[in-house]
Structure prediction request, 482 residues.
Amino acid sequence: MENTPLARKLGAFVALSGTELAVLETLHKRRRTFVAGRDLFHQGQSGQAAYVLASGWAVSYKILQDGQRQIVDFQIPGDFLGLRSVLLHMSDHSIEPITDIEVTEVLATDLLDVFARTPRLATAVLWAASRDEAMVVEHLVNIGRRNAAERTAHFLLELGARLSLVGMGSKAGFACPLTQYLLGDALGLSSVHVNRVLRKLREKEMVTFRNGFVAFDSHNRLTEFAEFDPTYLDQVGPLLM
Amino acid sequence: MENTPLARKLGAFVALSGTELAVLETLHKRRRTFVAGRDLFHQGQSGQAAYVLASGWAVSYKILQDGQRQIVDFQIPGDFLGLRSVLLHMSDHSIEPITDIEVTEVLATDLLDVFARTPRLATAVLWAASRDEAMVVEHLVNIGRRNAAERTAHFLLELGARLSLVGMGSKAGFACPLTQYLLGDALGLSSVHVNRVLRKLREKEMVTFRNGFVAFDSHNRLTEFAEFDPTYLDQVGPLLM
DNA sequence: CGGAGGGTTGATTCCCCTCAAAATCAGTGG
DNA sequence: CCACTGATTTTGAGGGGAATCAACCCTCCG
Prediction:
């Protein structure tokens, strides 16, 4: 099972045959690295290539005219970067590496070629995109209807669950390169308020966010507090045989 | 060009051949109607069929344990209902008709069959899904980073633009069956506050929401006020020839 | 050692929520 | 035709959650 990141990603949705794996191999010609802080691409730009994150963290966001930023999601290893931009031929958001990252590049033209020749892969990508959308929807609910503390708790639990799926976290906690500024822009809060909320959650002994590490002091109580239901993240085995 | 709703929808993304159109014909066996207020399906349910809305309005939403509701989006003629639920074999949201609606049914198994035999249609559906996701992302930005007035203005402009694309609105306005409760649940506001905001926007002579009709008193000033940029909605002709 | 980025805390302000009560309207049935 | 009901809209009063503004701290690093 020592495969490319893309094969691992899509293998979660579709049981891939040998030939399909071979086709996937041809897809990502290049492995690239990007340094933290410099945009991979910027909103308004036309997207020529998508990437699959192999290591490191990235963030996708939109900037308003007055300079405010809303973070749509953070990307962790195994996630697509800029898939929507490639499909719509235009990027409606920006992506920036939070840490130095390694990615494999997937060219738009190659992707469409592969869809035409290997329909099951198109289905797999459609599933991956649907799962991404389910996450954005949950973020919408989170920001629209939960208060700052529940919102923050829910966010940390989601991140922990996602990281656990790729072996980078557990119910005990996970290493986390995010700043409180980034948290604020993701949760629709000011960084000052994020700080206060984190203190409250720490004092209640539910979760501790310090020194680049998130520790779930009581995963159970936190889950209950945030009404966190990870169903929308679950992907139990291939859906298409 | 007198086609089924689904063919019109996907034709916006891919130039469809005669055979592809024929395949699409076989997809929706049944035309169904639903009455206002009764859920099409409910979150947690496993999705067996998706629908394409032929007439009327619907709303997709999630309910929290304490009864609060967050509306994800409203669906107008031409939109998919429950596409994500079918693909992920599980509905993470509910859908309710706002008015009496007519839909065409698309069975999950048929859809996957068609993907296997007609890859270009899979690509078209992927595009449609990506466009839906772009809208949810914009809603996230709207709720996360705009105040109540800008948020409401942005929402009405988006709705107007979408309705214009299907011939149900213009820069002058559109017929709108939404209540202020629905607006509140979509915008993450209380219905009381929505009412106050609408009054302000009316007094500023930017937009008037009354008696089931939205009138853009000054589409230009409202667009500037809300920083509305419809790029994420645009779909100028087929992307794949 | 100076500067930048990030974290922490306090004081004040304000946007929006909650609670409450009328007013309006559509539909229903006597 | 009118009384009755329920849904929706409108307006007021008061309170609270989060933003803003402003310090000060720490650590890291060139």
